[in-house]
Amino acid sequence: MDIGAMMFVTDYSARPDDLGRMLEERGFESLWVPEHTHIPASRRSPWPGGPDLPEMYWHTYDPFVALTAAAGATTTLKLGTGICLMIERDPITTAKEVASVDLISNGRFIFGIGGGWNAEEMQDHGTNYQRRWRILRENILAMKEIWTQDEPEFHGRYVNFDKMWAWPKPAQKPHPPILMGGDGPTTFDRVLEYCDGWMPISGRPAEGPGLPEKIVNLKRRAEDLGRDPDSINITVFGARPDPDNLAQMEEYGVNRVIFSLPSANADTVTPILDDCAKLI
């Protein structure tokens, strides 16, 4: 089981290139960064993590810029978005960004995606909150065409383009792994249709079947569809960094756990990384 770390890298935290070096030196498998273009000041949408939204949410770097900086400072560390808000993005532009980071990093990019929670943020981008999953689906399907075809074209309700030329193509073939974030009633439908894995947040939701039952269910459904169940990557975000929890996760069939780091400077983060590295 691999161990990665995530941080809201911001204008007041450790730099992404420095953080990448620190993680690689300590044997971490991957670095993950989230995305928010902005946070509407109205704050009408409730944050799933609690009543008070931390300021790191509106100070975070663009994920592709941050991961490119980390790519240039490392050689083996994998680089993931956790998550990229594709419901707020143009698929043609983002397909090029994904391919560019993957190529520059020599095939180390992992594409974590999700639907997001902030309806006002999406609205500012012209995205209808109620249609976000349908938009996300077409965005990803269209991007797959761009990554894998010499003359891709796509004709959907939300994404529509005729044959085009678009390079570079990703270093990983057919494309970087796509992990679906979230844990809703239809999440597995999306994982099985157009993703390579599932990326839940540890401890959410508190009700319903537990993580091991969900993993068994997902892999059973994959097998029923003719997919290799072992090819479905299970990455758990925000895992608790203690030996018993990691042993349990591995027993469940989790492929990767990701520890959450505070948005703080290098001096503050270093001892936390040293402690977490003992678990690798």
Offer a few descriptive terms.
280 residues; TIM Barrel; alpha/beta; two-stranded antiparallel ribbon; globular
Total tally of structural domains: 1
How much of the sequence is in beta strands? 15-25%
Number of helices in the DSSP assignment? 9
Q: Distance between the terminal alpha carbons, to the nearest Å?
A: 9 Å
* Major sheet: arrangement of strands: 1-2-3-4-7-8-9-10
Q: Rg from C-alpha positions?
A: 18 Å
Number of strands: 10
CATH class: Alpha Beta
Task: Write structural notes for this entry.
- This protein has 280 residues and is of the alpha/beta class.
- It has one domain (2-277): TIM Barrel, CATH 3.20.20.
- Helices cover 36% and strands 15% of the residues.
- The protein has nine helices and ten strands.
- It has helices at residues 16-25, 63-73, 91-104, 119-124, 132-148, 187-194, 211-224, 243-252, 266-277, and strands at 2-6, 30-33, 78-84, 109-113, 154-155, 160-161, 178-181, 197-199, 233-237, 256-260.
- The strands form two sheets. An eight-stranded parallel β-barrel has the order 1-2-3-4-7-8-9-10, surrounded by four helices.
- The mean pLDDT is 96.
